[in-house]
């Protein structure tokens, strides 16, 4: 763009780094990953995290084993393009439900994040859940933070060898089972085990291995790196934050000046705040940050530092909550819980909530009212219109009839919309369970009754012995 | 046309591809050696617009190794698969070979299914629901484009459901038609028939054969001219299935009805082709299709 006359062109100066800055340090453009050794901690939020691990994994590992009648209760049969969900048989044409589910998931994320920050990240995300499971194994086998640090620094001894081997073995076992379970959603899981034992089904094997390796790598090694560098949700959730969103906060006014103290003297007289600078909050953090530096993009809001700090506060006989879930407003205005709670129902929360509720209701209603029959009508491509014996005009159509029930179903094909319109081909067709078939259908009208041109007609397909009925529009062509 | 005779474009594309990968490598190498000054406040020290500073949040080093890995993968891929100009790759992979392999595999998987039908006579298959369902699908995918979804054809495309056959309606003849295709030739006959008036008279005679509305005076005048047609259509006009010559007495009009259509046919002739399906479909599939087509006129309505 050419600058307007008389306007001086704006020059953006680039200031070189000050060479005489004593703090300046020469660093590479790339950062080496620093391994994090989180310390185990117990407390309210740690227990919530475990509860979420149990709930999500019971569902994930358990669901494929449940049966619904003769078949697997939840099965996404990609090969046959049929998706079994409890009593439902979904076709690829039902893709709108997947869209709905994804929109509902996204809106739930928006709503939860606006109200309570990164709840999903801290408690329910598979990355968090599997990392937690893998860390638990690490903790049981190699010991807590200090023991692990010592083990990793130390030479390779027999103890180190067996501990590392056992950990890897357990990790690989869980990963393999996770991959197996994942594939079990797409191939009948009861047959899958036998198949894999016999080394059949190379694609199944590939996906078991792929998902297994991804689990192993993500939960065993990449861990917080996924949240920091790879996950888009981690980054765009900050757009849903405002000053009334629950976040993990460090009460700076109360905590500073931090430092060790003797229990004999009141800290205030020494000019000290409540923070004893024990760094436990840093040691338990699974993403390796110091929450006392304020809200950071790495923080997944898991609340483990809250648990750690509260145990220390209890020991020191200080009130809990130096580090706590609070809001930006709550901390700056020193609000109590009910004051913060009053700010929950703000416009963005109400809008997210209303849209989410409407979508959920719409989705449930459309699933309940869903007709287990789909029909596509395509006019035959070979002949537009023809005159047949008896002086009748005939049009040919192809009807794709999709039976979304799990039993053989007979359908009667009718048509209306023109005077004297008749179905000249057979009146009924039988379609197998969850089968889809193209059926050629001929419609006839007496010659001369209908003027030349294109006329709307309606196919009326009814299931025999059921209330299922679908009406599909098409056109009947009469030549000039 | 030089791209067919000279490999310049191949070298050009291969050169750009390799240079692109090497340039990525060069960029990685330069950035991995570059050092910047970090400050205590974790900014790069660069300031724009008075107070806009740049945070120093470096990429993780493993991310750089991922880039290196993709380069290594890229070279491996280009060596194994076609990607460098016209170089076909060490594995000799091609889409065509993969397609052929997939078709062969699919046919092998279907073999047990078709083995049952191979042992059956077409007449028996016509009563077999599974064979007819497969036959219907084969027909809709391979035949309906011309003969229509209901097999009743349209102008120039024969009706397969009316028991009127150009080349014979026995299962063997149908199978032969599908397998090898057919070419029906009606030569231009105007010179042999005579004057345009003779041709018109002959047209009315042909109309009279099937009892269609015609001018009986012209028809009686045209009757003698029919000798030119009798070689193929027979003296009685009932056609000859060995030659594919249509029956003219049955009121089935494949290429159009009326004096104008018949006159045009006598004057200009017509070559009509049914393409051979042998290369597209397996013998077993043709067998099932034969039974399906045969059933259309022999078990009318029963197969549905």
Can you characterise this structure?
- The complex is a heterodimer of chains A (480) and B (304).
- Chain A is of the alpha+beta class and 480 residues long.
- Chain A is built from 16 helices and 18 strands.
- In chain A, strands 10, 11, 12, 14 and 16 form a five-stranded antiparallel beta sheet that branches. Chain A has a four-stranded antiparallel beta sheet with strand order 15-13-17-18, with no helix packed on it. Chain A has a three-stranded antiparallel beta sheet with strand order 5-6-7, with no helix packed on it.
- Chain A starts with 24 loop residues before the first strand and ends with a strand.
- Chain B is mainly α and 304 residues long.
- Chain B folds into three domains: 2-34 and 44-80, no CATH class; 106-181 and 275-298, Cytochrome c-like domain (Cytochrome Bc1 Complex, Chain D, domain 2), CATH 1.10.760; 185-274, Cytochrome c-like domain (Cytochrome Bc1 Complex, Chain D, domain 2), CATH 1.10.760.10.
- Chain B has 14 helices and six strands.
- In chain B, the strands form two sheets. In chain B, strands 2-3 form a two-stranded antiparallel ribbon. In chain B, strands 5-6 form a two-stranded antiparallel sheet.
- The two termini of chain B are 56 Å apart.
- At the A-B interface, strand 1, strand 2, helix 9, strand 12 and strand 16 of A face strand 1, strand 2, strand 4, helix 3 and helix 6 of B.
**Main sheet of chain A?**
5 strands, antiparallel
- Global geometry of chain B: elongated
In total, the number of strands of chain A is 18
Largest interface: A-B, 42 and 41 residues
Structural class call of chain A reads alpha+beta
Uncertain segments of chain B are 300-304
Describe the structure using short key phrases.
heterodimer; A: 480 residues; alpha+beta; Immunoglobulin-like; 20% strand; B: 304 residues; mainly alpha; Cytochrome Bc1 Complex, Chain D, domain 2; 3 domains; two-stranded antiparallel sheet; 6 strands; 54% helix; disordered C terminus
């Amino acid at each position: 763009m050419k600058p307007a006359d008389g306007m001086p062109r704006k020059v953006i100066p680039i200031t070189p780094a000050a060479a005489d800055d004593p703090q300046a340090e020469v660093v590479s453009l790339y950062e080496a990953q620093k391994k994090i050794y989180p310390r185990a901690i117990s407390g309210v939020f740690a227990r919530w995290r475990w509860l979420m691990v149990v709930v999500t994994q019971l569902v994930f590992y358990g669901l494929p084993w449940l049966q619904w009648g003769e078949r697997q209760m939840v099965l996404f049969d990609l090969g046959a393009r049929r998706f079994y969900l409890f009593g439902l048989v979904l076709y690829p044409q039902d893709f709108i439900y997947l869209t709905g589910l994804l929109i509902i998931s996204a809106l739930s994320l928006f709503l939860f994040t606006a109200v309570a920050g990164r709840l999903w990240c801290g408690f329910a995300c598979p990355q968090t859940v599997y990392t937690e499971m893998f860390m638990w194994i690490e903790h049981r086998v190699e010991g807590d933070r200090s023991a692990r640090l010592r083990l990793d620094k130390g030479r390779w001894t027999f103890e180190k060898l067996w501990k590392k081997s056992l950990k890897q073995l357990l990790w690989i076992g869980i990963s393999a089972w996770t991959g197996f379970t994942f594939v079990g959603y797409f191939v009948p899981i009861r047959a899958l085990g036998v198949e894999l034992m016999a080394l059949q089904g190379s694609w199944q094997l590939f996906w078991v291995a792929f998902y297994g390796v991804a689990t192993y790598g993500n939960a065993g090694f990449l861990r917080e790196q996924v949240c920091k560098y790879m996950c888009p949700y981690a980054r765009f959730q900050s757009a849903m934050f405002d000053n009334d969103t629950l976040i993990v906060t460090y009460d700076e006014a109360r905590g500073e000046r931090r430092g060790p103290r003797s229990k004999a003297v009141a800290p205030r007289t020494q000019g000290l705040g409540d923070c004893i600078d024990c760094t436990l909050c840093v040691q338990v953090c699974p993403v390796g940050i110091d929450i006392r530096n304020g809200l950071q993009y790495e923080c997944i809001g898991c609340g483990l530092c809250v648990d750690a700090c509260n145990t220390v506060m209890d020991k020191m006989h200080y009130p809990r909550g130096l580090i706590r879930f609070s809001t930006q407003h709550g901390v700056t205005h020193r609000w109590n819980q009910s004051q913060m709670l009053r700010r929950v129902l703000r416009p963005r929360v109400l809008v997210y909530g209303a849209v989410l509720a409407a979508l959920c209701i719409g989705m449930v209603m459309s699933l309940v009212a869903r007709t287990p029959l789909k029909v596509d009508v395509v006019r035959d491509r070979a002949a537009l219109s023809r005159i047949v014996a008896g002086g009748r005009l005939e049009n040919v159509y192809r009807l794709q009839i999709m039976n979304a029930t799990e039993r053989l179903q007979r359908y009667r094909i009718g048509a209306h919309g023109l005077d004297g319109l008749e179905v000249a081909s057979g009146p009924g067709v039988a379609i197998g369970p969850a089968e889809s078939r193209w059926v050629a259908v001929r419609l006839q009208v007496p010659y001369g009754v209908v003027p030349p041109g294109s006329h709307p007609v309606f196919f009326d397909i009814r299931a025999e012995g059921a209330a299922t009925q679908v009406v599909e529009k098409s056109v009947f062509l009469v030549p000039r | 046309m030089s791209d067919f005779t000279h490999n310049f474009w191949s070298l050009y594309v291969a050169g750009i591809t390799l240079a692109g990968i090497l340039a990525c490598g060069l960029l990685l190498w330069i950035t991995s050696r570059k050092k910047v000054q970090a400050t205590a406040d974790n900014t790069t020290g660069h300031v724009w617009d008075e107070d806009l500073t740049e945070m120093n949040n470096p990429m993780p080093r493993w991310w750089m190794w991922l880039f290196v890995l993709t380069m290594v993968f890229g070279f491996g891929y280009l060596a194994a698969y076609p990607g460098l100009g016209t170089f076909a790759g060490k594995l000799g992979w091609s889409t065509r070979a993969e397609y052929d392999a997939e078709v062969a595999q699919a046919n092998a998987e279907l073999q047990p299914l078709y083995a049952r039908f191979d042992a059956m006579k077409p007449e028996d298959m016509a009563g077999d629901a599974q064979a007819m369902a497969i036959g219907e699908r084969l027909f809709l995918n391979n035949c309906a484009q011309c003969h229509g979804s209901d097999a009743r054809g349209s102008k120039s495309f024969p009706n397969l459901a009316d028991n009127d056959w150009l080349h014979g309606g026995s299962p063997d003849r149908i199978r032969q038609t599908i397998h090898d295709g057919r070419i029906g030739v009606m030569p231009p006959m105007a010179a042999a028939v005579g004057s345009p008036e003779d041709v018109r008279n002959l047209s009315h005679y042909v109309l009279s054969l099937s009892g269609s509305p015609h001018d009986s005076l012209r028809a009686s005048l045209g009757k003698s001219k029919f000798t030119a047609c009798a070689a193929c259509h027979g003296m009685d006009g009932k056609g000859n299935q060995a030659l594919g010559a249509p029956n003219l007495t049955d009121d089935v009009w494949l290429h159009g009805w009326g004096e104008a259509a018949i006159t045009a046919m006598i004057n200009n002739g017509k070559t009509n082709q049914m393409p051979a399906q042998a290369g597209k479909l397996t013998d077993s599939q043709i067998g099932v299709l034969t039974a399906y087509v045969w059933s259309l006129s022999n078990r009318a309505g029963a197969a549905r």
